[in-house]
């Protein structure tokens, strides 16, 4: 588990889609939504870890069709999510700061933020391939594959939550500047473009 923790820690701090989503939620919607998004991402990672441990995600490695279906579903989801952010950021009308007491509450609440994080991970076949490549290598003989797979995924989740907490609370410390309407719009546009880019790359790439 210690060896896996070292590998997982290095992968966790590499900037990627998960970091972008948590950062965006923290800036645009506040600290609770940042944590909700992070927990959703962790839930998706836990599901992939359990699937990899029991061999269920081996289907992705063995079946071109299964991989392609999940690949295009994930690409479509990311493009839709990014496109929605872009559309909202360019809507006419004055944007309200999150510090404004008269600002409308975030649509969908914390559950929606959690679902965005979970959906992004669950619909990304690259995450499944990573877990099926890594998890089995760290399962010793004589232990329950499912139990060990969940334990390793939990280690990854713990490291991820520590990293996300640094991002979320760091953002919270300077929220007065970051939550200005113009900055929030810019964040949504950058995040939206990143999501569309990730989605397009996923759709166009093979294995």
Automatic annotation (TrEMBL):
The organism sits in which domain of life?
Bacteria
Q: Does Cell cycle count among this protein's keywords?
A: no
> What topology does the record note for this protein and the membrane?
Multi-pass membrane protein
Name a GO molecular-function annotation: amino acid transmembrane transporter activity
- InterPro entries per the record? LeuE-type
Organism, scientific name: Arthrobacter crystallopoietes BAB-32
Name of this protein:
Lysine exporter protein LysE/YggA
> Which chain regions cross the lipid bilayer?
6-27, 39-60, 66-87, 146-166
Location(s) in or outside the cell: Cell membrane
Question: Species lineage, top-down?
Answer: Bacteria, Bacillati, Actinomycetota, Actinomycetes, Micrococcales
């Amino acid at each position: 588990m210690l060896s896996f923790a070292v590998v997982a820690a290095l992968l966790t701090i590499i900037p990627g889609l998960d970091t972008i989503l948590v950062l965006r939620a923290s800036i645009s919607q506040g600290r609770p939504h940042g944590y909700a998004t992070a927990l959703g991402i962790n839930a998706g990672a836990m599901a992939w870890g359990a699937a990899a441990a029991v061999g269920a995600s081996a289907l992705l490695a063995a079946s071109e069709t299964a991989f392609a279906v999940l690949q295009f579903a994930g690409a479509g989801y990311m493009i839709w999510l990014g496109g929605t952010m872009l559309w909202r950021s360019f809507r006419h009308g004055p944007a309200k700061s999150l510090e404004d007491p008269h600002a409308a509450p975030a649509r969908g609440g914390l559950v929606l933020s959690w679902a965005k994080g979970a959906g992004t991970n669950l619909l990304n076949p690259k995450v499944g391939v990573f877990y099926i490549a890594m998890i089995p290598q760290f399962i010793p003989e004589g232990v329950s594959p499912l139990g060990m797979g969940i334990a390793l995924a939990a280690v990854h989740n713990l490291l991820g939550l520590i990293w996300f907490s640094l991002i979320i609370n760091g953002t919270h410390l300077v929220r007065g500047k970051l939550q200005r309407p113009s900055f929030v719009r810019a964040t949504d546009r950058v995040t939206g473009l990143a999501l569309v880019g990730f989605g397009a790359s996923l759709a166009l790439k093979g294995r």
